[in-house]
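The protein record reproduced below.
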Amino acid sequence: MDVRKVMRGDKDLSGADLSGANLSGARLSGADLSGANLSGADLSRARLSGAMLSGADLSGADLGPADLSGANLSGANLVDAILVGADLSRANLSRADLSRAHLSDADLSDANLSGADLSRAFLSDANLSGANLKGTKMPEGWEFIVRDH
C-alpha cells in the first residue's frame, strides 16, 4: 500500500496501490491518481477537485460526499462505488463504468458522461443539468424529468 506517499502530501500517486486504504477527508485536489488502485478505499469527504483519476480502479470505494468537481475520471472503474452527495460537477467521466454506483443526491451538473455506463446505477435526486450524455448507457426505464426551479 502506498499510503505513506499520501501522508507525505505527494501529488504524483499515479499507479499507486491504495486498495482498501482509509483516506477519509484526504486533501488530494490536483493529485495525479491515474491508473491507481483505490478499490474498496474509504475516500468519504475527500477533496479531489481537479484530480487526475483516469483509468483508476475505484470499484466499491466510498466517495460520499467527496469533492470531485472538475476531476478527470475518464475510463475509471466506479462499479459499486458510493458517491452519495458527491460533487462531480464539471467532472470528466467519459467512458467510465458507473454500473451499480450509488449516485443519489450527487451533483453531476455540466459533467462529461459521454460513453459512460450507468446501467443499474442509483440516480435518485442526482443533478444532471447540462451534463453531456451522448452515448451514455442509462439505467433501464430511466426517464428524464425536467423540474422548474
Q: What stands out?
A: The first helix runs from residue 3 to 7.
